[in-house]
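Same chain as my last thread, 167 residues:
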Amino acid sequence: MKKLILCAICAICGFTTANAQGKLGHVNTQEIIQAMPEFTKAQNEIKALQEQYEADLKSMNDEFQKKLEDYQKNGSTLPDNIKQRREQELQDMDTKIRQSYQDNQQALQKASSEKMQVIQTKVLDAIKAVGQAGGFTYIAEMGTMPYISTTLSTDVTAQVKTKLGLK
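reply #2:
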């Protein structure tokens, strides 16, 4: 009886140890993301938005410069009340330009974050699917860990790309 119990305990311990070792994988999500057409599309959309914002700011700045030059040429001949009004107008325009720049930067950051969130979610879902299908215990990001043994761990980057329909 003791031998039977001892054999059962050894079998359970051996099974638990074998399961604890599991399959390990590593992935390069940057490589995957850069290969995605969604990433290229998102970059192009952000670039177009940035160019639009820059054109708007340039237009505002050009108008400001014209009014400033006019004020500098004719300011000394203007009555005090008109002079003060023009100075206030120039200050308001400068404030508006600065605020527009800050708003544009925030809008660009928000748009970029939203577009990248969708892409990252898609990649993470593909990594999870590859991990489940391959029976992996862990799949770690290359470069985020101090060391990943590429001989003891399987590179699943190509499998994730295939899951996403990438080359």
